[in-house]
Write a structure and sequence with these properties.
Number of strands: 2
Distance between the termini: 94 Å
Strand content: under 5%
Helix content: 55-70%
Length: 206
């Protein structure tokens, strides 16, 4: 159990699930705006450099939120990190300890693949990686979706353990709808500009 900053288990569970939800929201927003955007060629065409900058910023921030969930329970003698390891160590799991550890283990594959990016180019400027210009942090298609399915499963374990009932990630519809409206504004602007720049045919009568 934590001796650095002991907290009420219910408070820990709520705060931890909030962090999980935020990582989920960041990921959903990134996917909707970039990976799953059916009109991403519009952004590539209208503002290619800025579009790439936004993609890099969004991806780095999303990676960071995921990786922070996998921090060690403690950093040094006095600092605690509210992470998966901390939650496993500081809630009284009883007979469910093996089950929750198995649930946490399912989250490791994506973390192992993106954590080098966090450590070497997001949180630090690793000279060797920067000079070589090698891509870092890639993962197989669909692994991110599997990760968040497993993360929700783990968060449900935490919620139930503290008698908080079922848990589901929140705000997905708000993010999806907001991203859709945002992209529609860009599409409408593009359509309006093209309409203004399209020559109109006129009929003349003698």
């Amino acid at each position: 159990m934590d001796t650095c900053s002991p907290k009420d288990p219910t408070t820990l569970a709520k705060e931890f699930c909030t962090l999980c939800n935020w990582a989920f929201v960041c990921w959903i927003a990134h996917r909707r705006l970039f990976d799953d955007n059916p009109n991403k060629e519009l952004l590539d065409r209208k503002a290619p450099y800025f579009h790439e900058y936004l993609w890099r910023i969004s991806q780095a921030y999303s990676y960071l939120q995921i990786c922070k969930l996998h921090d060690p329970a403690h950093s040094g003698a006095t600092k605690s990190n509210l992470s998966i390891s901390y939650i496993i160590a500081n809630l009284d799991w009883g007979d469910d300890k093996d089950s929750v550890q198995q649930s946490a283990a399912k989250l490791e594959e994506l973390y192992r693949r993106i954590n080098p990016a966090r450590n070497r180019v997001i949180a630090h400027n690793d000279l060797d990686i920067l000079l070589r210009g090698e891509p870092i942090g890639a993962f197989p298609e669909g692994l991110d979706k599997e990760y968040f399915q497993c993360l929700q499963e783990f968060a449900r374990h935490v919620h139930r353990q503290c008698d908080l009932g079922h848990y589901y990630f929140k705000d997905m519809n708000h993010v999806m709808d907001g991203a859709y409206e945002y992209l529609e504004v860009l599409n409408d602007s593009d359509r309006a500009n093209r309409s203004l720049n399209t020559p109109t045919s006129r009929s003349h009568q003698d």
